[in-house]
Design brief:
11% strand, 8-stranded mixed sheet, 700 residues, 3 domains
């Protein structure tokens, strides 16, 4: 890990931290505006028609996530949100009661004449409880209050139910945001300053889940209104473009929603593919995360998870996928669905060419060699790319004549099968996570592109459920023996084999210690704390020597100790140490120092991780080398009921004191960053042969 990589990672963390601080500062500076926004948007959600387009719920949850930062306060946000919810339902109810006879003639209900009858049916089905139900039901909430007014509901009864539902709804959603914000604060301590990225991802996901169905519905409605003039233009002339447009917009066809769905799938898959390729080519954090994920999963590679992963990997192997392709091609040919068969062949060829080109371009070997006979695809990621492309295009062919819900169920099953293959292959170490993501992205992008071309043409005589049944049966018939006959060999092949390197004491002291990582590597591929301790041998001796200096084991993770995060006067020694990984490896030793000249809200945390390096002592004994860091933490009150230990960075100020207390130790200076590093070892394992006491001291 070079200094350039560390500088790049540090710059990105600083940028994310600056963005997070900017958002929190803006909310703190303009708190009244934020509360007003919660009031207005929660009220607007109940306005007829337009309320379905207002993301009030998502905004309230997002504002709630800022409460743990201190930018906003819980009860004022609840009060403003509750008030907005009450007013938002009350005004449409008054409008419906006041203009009961001609409500449908006024804007915006006159633009949607079928909306009011649907709301009335919902109201008649649930009665007064519909007021409370609608509060938690997107879309219905924008219609129900005015329907209650038009239906002649007693005002006192409505307003009582309105207040009750608002008093339940607002605290629940603000509390959900607080929980998200508190969780992100803890995750930020564990993984570095990634709060802005995580908040952005969650808010973006919520926004997409809210936006995509509405956007699709709006686009489809808009296209329906433009179908007639566009169809007249297409039929008025000749040419391939006009012919294609006329075919797509033919009133006898109902594939418009399918085309939009495939276009969205194509855009999303290409976005994933290009994002991963950019990281692979530039060597960005995803490449470092590959190693961390691999090392993190290795200890869990056994038992039932191992059996399941081997089974799904075999089901997605090239041999099984090509068997499915062969059988479905024969069946499509007998059905005279020759275009579908051609697209199936194109799916296999395109996926094979992509993975071959990616492998030749990047020259990136998989983490472990592929077992003979495991795959018919000789390139990493080839099996997953081919599987996604094949099952993707078969889903398009089978789903073309199905309704919306069966089609969605089929797409979900295909995506789930692909996801299980990806997880299984990464878990087994068959390929890197980033390579599998690229394969999945291309496979589905290629299937969506082929699907667009397929759906744009006239319907072929394909019995949808028969194609689904044949595909599933072939997968089971070809996959079951592939899994059963190769089970023992696969389990043996994927058994964890620890890779290790060996160096002598002399090599370690002369230059080997400088070749070890200088910073810890998080699960997301970001570098954090400075690794300033190297220890050979077991950790028992270090634990004993540290105890003599006042260091203590951290508070264990029990339910009672976990409540310390909520204690009003939590002490540094009583708060458990949050988990942290280095290159996917769990902490091997953690110790805490509180008091002893530190501030009342400060503590030092020492962590050691095992490496894959062994040091050979002069007597020929191989001792495991561990690397570690010492981090300064300060307890920060982030909410009236939440205390979080916030990192103030690594420290080397205590290393001389540790070196003086350890019989076998040496202080050295790292050339890469000028940091002081403590080299030490357990006296019980002949460490003194590497680090005799007479040589202790600072080397320059």
């Amino acid at each position: 890990m070079g200094t350039g990589d560390n500088h790049k990672q540090r710059s990105r963390r600083d940028l994310l931290g600056h963005l997070s601080d900017t958002i929190v500062h803006a909310a703190r500076t303009h708190a009244l505006l934020a509360y007003g926004l919660a009031f207005v948007l929660t009220a607007a959600e109940a306005f007829p028609v337009i309320g379905a387009l207002v993301p009030g719920t998502a905004i309230v949850v997002g504002l709630g996530a800022l409460v743990p930062t201190g930018a906003l306060h819980f009860w004022p946000l609840v009060a403003w949100s509750t008030g907005g919810a009450i007013v938002g339902d009350g005004l449409p109810f008054w409008f419906g009661s006041r203009f009961r006879d001609r409500a449908t003639e006024l804007w915006p209900l006159n633009l949607h004449p079928g909306l009011l009858p649907k709301g009335q049916a919902f109201f008649e089905r649930h009665g007064g409880a519909a007021v409370i139900i609608a509060r938690f039901t997107p879309g219905v909430r924008a219609v129900l209050p005015i329907v209650a007014g038009v239906s002649g509901m007693m005002p006192l009864r409505f307003y009582v139910l309105d207040v009750v539902s608002a008093v339940i709804w607002a605290p629940a959603h603000v509390a959900a945001g607080v929980l998200v914000g508190a969780s992100l604060a803890i995750l930020g301590v564990m993984a570095g300053r990634l709060e802005a990225l995580l908040v952005g991802s969650i808010v973006g996901l919520v926004f997409l889940l809210w936006l995509v169905p509405r956007l699709l519905r709006s686009v489809i409605n808009w296209l329906e209104t433009r179908r007639r003039p566009a169809l007249a233009w297409a039929r008025a002339g000749k040419g391939r473009i006009r012919s294609a447009v006329a075919s797509i917009l033919d009133p006898a066809r109902t594939e418009l929603s399918g085309l939009i769905t495939l276009a969205g799938a194509l855009a999303g898959s290409l976005w994933l593919l290009l994002g991963v390729l950019q990281d692979l080519i530039a060597g960005d954090p995803l490449v470092y995360a590959d190693h961390a994920i691999l090392h993190f999963l290795e200890p869990y590679r056994s038992g039932i998870p191992m059996e399941v992963a081997v089974a799904f990997s075999r089901l997605g192997s090239g041999a099984v996928t090509l068997a499915v392709v062969a059988v479905t091609l024969v069946w499509l040919d007998r059905q005279s669905a020759w275009r579908g068969a051609a697209y199936g062949i194109a799916a296999v060829i395109g996926a094979s060419l992509f993975t071959a080109g990616l492998d030749l371009t990047l020259h990136r070997a998989p983490p472990s060699p592929i077992a003979p006979g495991w795959s018919l695809m000789p390139f990493p990621g080839g099996d997953l790319a081919t599987s996604c492309a094949v099952y993707g295009i078969l889903t398009v062919i089978a789903g073309r004549r199905l309704g919306a819900r069966p089609r969605l169920a089929l797409m979900t099953a295909t995506a789930l099968f692909a996801g299980l293959q990806l997880v299984s292959r990464v878990y087994l170490g068959l390929d890197w996570f980033s390579s599998e993501l690229a394969a999945l992205g291309f496979g589905f992008a290629w299937a969506a592109g082929l699907g667009l071309a397929y759906v744009a043409r006239p319907v072929e005589p394909v019995a949808s459920w028969r194609l689904v049944a044949i595909t599933a049966a072939t997968l089971a018939i070809a996959g079951t023996p592939a899994v059963a006959f190769n089970r023992n060999a696969d389990l043996a092949h994927h058994e964890v084999r620890r890779r290790s390197s060996i160096m002598t004491c002399r090599d370690w002291l002369q230059h080997g210690w400088q070749n070890l990582p200088a910073r810890s590597l998080g699960m997301l591929g970001s570098f954090s704390g400075m690794l300033t301790i190297q220890w050979i041998g077991p950790v028992g001796g270090l634990r004993h020597d540290l105890a003599q200096l006042g260091w203590q084991p951290p508070a264990p993770w029990t339910f009672r100790n976990a409540l310390g995060f909520l204690a009003p006067r939590a002490t540094p020694a009583a708060i458990p140490v949050l988990p942290r990984w280095d290159d996917g490896r769990r902490v091997d030793l953690a110790m805490v120092l509180a008091g002893h000249g530190l501030a009342a809200d400060q503590r030092l945390v020492l962590r050691l991780w095992k490496t894959s390096v062994s040091v050979i002592t002069p007597t020929g004994r191989a001792q495991t080398l561990r690397i570690g860091e010492i981090e300064m933490q300060r307890l920060q009150r982030m909410f009236s009921t939440l205390t979080v230990p916030v990192s103030e960075g690594s420290t080397t100020a205590v290393l001389p004191r540790l070196a003086a207390a350890l019989p076998s130790s040496r202080l050295v200076t790292r050339a890469a960053d000028g940091a002081t590093v403590l080299l030490a070892g357990d006296r019980a394992v002949d460490a003194e042969e590497c680090l005799p006491p007479s040589q202790k001291g600072a080397e320059r």
